[in-house]
Write a structure and sequence with these properties.
Pyrimidine Nucleoside Phosphorylase, Chain A, domain 2; 16 helices; alpha/beta; Transferase, Pyrimidine Nucleoside Phosphorylase, Chain A, domain 3; binds uracil; Aldehyde Oxidoreductase, domain 3
Length: 434
């Protein structure tokens, strides 16, 4: 059948449902450059306004997967499982989680990205470790998965090229905020990774894409539905992102915190989320009899971390970069810290040099914010509340400005929000599995 971009746009503009053939055609033709950017922009806007059904979204995702190559993990002797987070401030969970789940007996390929805006990227964090290399060939990924069980590396260019093109277009046409488009974008890259199962950490709160629980549940459901329709065991955890995760925000600062967790310490919220996601992943991998808390406590997860870092040229014992300037923000009064806004702390860390404004920019590995107090902690007037780390002292003013109104101290303890807000599971077995 002959298709035209205008016909496809009209169907969606008028609130209709796109057929499988139309979706396959439009994604394929767009990837090849046969559908113009302005036509795809019109279609993306029609999707943002009209939505897509679960069946359309699953097919849209499958078409984006088919636009490129898929990592074939068939020969790996362990169950393969991955985690994806929708992104948040201080979210370094991939760092302790990947070696932990590998040390429990699964194979975990984490094909990650770099940070843009106020949320950090896993590769930027790991690149603060001297010698560590993000780019691996497909053969190196497979070998490391077999030998160590854990890989965190850059996604190869060939995975879901339709998504790369479409994401750049959405970014400049006001069409990022569509749940079917966000969900299909995330899942196309994860499905192309070739894993058997996937756990999603959908962040909810000021520091996340999804600001309220209702939106987060809708995104989590869309992600789980797409994974299930494409043959993956998929579930989602919805976790709070109104407060930064842990105490460290910024690349090397977050690596140090992750290592503290792997050595049996670290902030309780980072430990709690790492263990919750590990249990979810082990359940999918058929390893629910392994207790990740034991594997974390007895040092096996830390040993796997060291092997994972060394396999990619990094020195796990090397000293991490330290900022040339550290300034302290003090508590204005005595009381209980009642609020510490994740978004504001993320913007402050970004302004200090931890993040990038454009894809081409470099990050400063040592820059960021250390939260010396978290909501619920008692603070005294004049005592240190936050530390601002940077190599460029001229950025401190902008960071302080971002933090104005970010924290509040009250006379009474208002209690804290739970870290894990909800869990979303598939209502049927994945396609092709029972
Ligand atoms: N992350 C993605 O990979 N895609 C989106 O559309 C949004 C967040």
């Amino acid at each position: 059948m002959i298709h035209s971009a205008i016909d496809v746009i009209r169907v969606k503009r008028d609130g209709g449902e796109l057929g499988d053939e139309q979706i396959d055609w439009v994604i394929g033709a767009y990837t090849r450059g046969e559908v113009a950017e302005e036509q795809m922009a019109a279609l993306a806007m029609a999707i943002l306004l009209r939505g897509m059904t679960p069946a359309e979204t699953a097919r849209w995702t499958a078409a984006m997967v088919a636009s490129g190559e898929t990592l074939v993990l068939d020969g790996i002797r362990k169950p393969t499982v991955d985690k994806h987070s929708t992104g948040g401030v201080g979210d370094k969970i991939t760092l302790p989680l990947t070696p932990l789940v590998a040390a429990c007996g699964a194979a975990v390929p984490q094909l990650s990205g770099r940070g843009l805006g106020h949320t950090g990227g896993t590769l930027d964090k790991l690149e603060s470790i001297p010698g560590w290399r993000a780019r691996l060939s497909t053969v190196e990924i497979r070998d490391q998965l077999d030998e160590v069980g854990a890989v965190v590396c850059a996604a190869t260019e060939g995975l879901a090229p339709a998504d790369r093109k479409l994401y750049a277009l959405r970014d400049v046409t006001g069409t990022v905020e569509s749940i079917p488009l966000i969900a299909s974008s995330i899942m196309s890259k994860k499905i192309a990774e070739g894993v058997q199962s996937l756990v999603l950490d959908v962040k909810c709160g000021s520091g996340a894409f999804m600001k309220d629980l209702d939106q987060a549940r809708r995104l989590a459901t869309a992600l789980v539905d797409i994974g299930t329709a494409n043959g993956l065991r998929t579930s989602a955890v919805i976790s709070d992102m109104s407060v930064p995760l842990g105490r460290a925000v910024g690349n090397a600062l977050e690596v140090a915190e992750a290592v503290a967790v792997l050595r049996g310490g670290g902030p309780p919220d980072v430990v709690e989320l790492t263990l919750a996601l590990a249990r979810e992943m082990l359940g999918h991998a058929g390893l629910s009899d392994v207790d990740p808390a034991v594997v974390l406590a007895d040092g096996r997860a830390y040993q796997t971390w060291c092997r994972m870092i060394a396999a990619q040229g990094g020195d796990p014992e090397a000293e991490l970069p330290r900022a040339e300037h550290v300034e302290v923000v003090t508590a204005p009064e005595t009381g209980t810290l009642a609020k510490l806004d994740a978004y504001a702390v993320g913007v402050a860390a970004w302004r200090l040099g931890a993040g990038r404004a454009r894809k081409e920019d470099d990050v400063q590995h040592a820059a960021g914010v250390l939260c010396l107090a978290k909501p619920g902690d008692q603070v005294t007037a004049g005592a240190p509340l936050l530390e601002l780390h940077t190599d460029r002292p001229e950025t401190i003013g902008g960071a302080r400005e971002a933090l104005a109104g970010a924290y509040a101290i009250s006379g009474a303890d208002r209690g804290s929000t739970p870290l894990i807000l909800d869990r979303v599971v598939a209502d049927h077995a994945p396609a092709g599995l029972s």
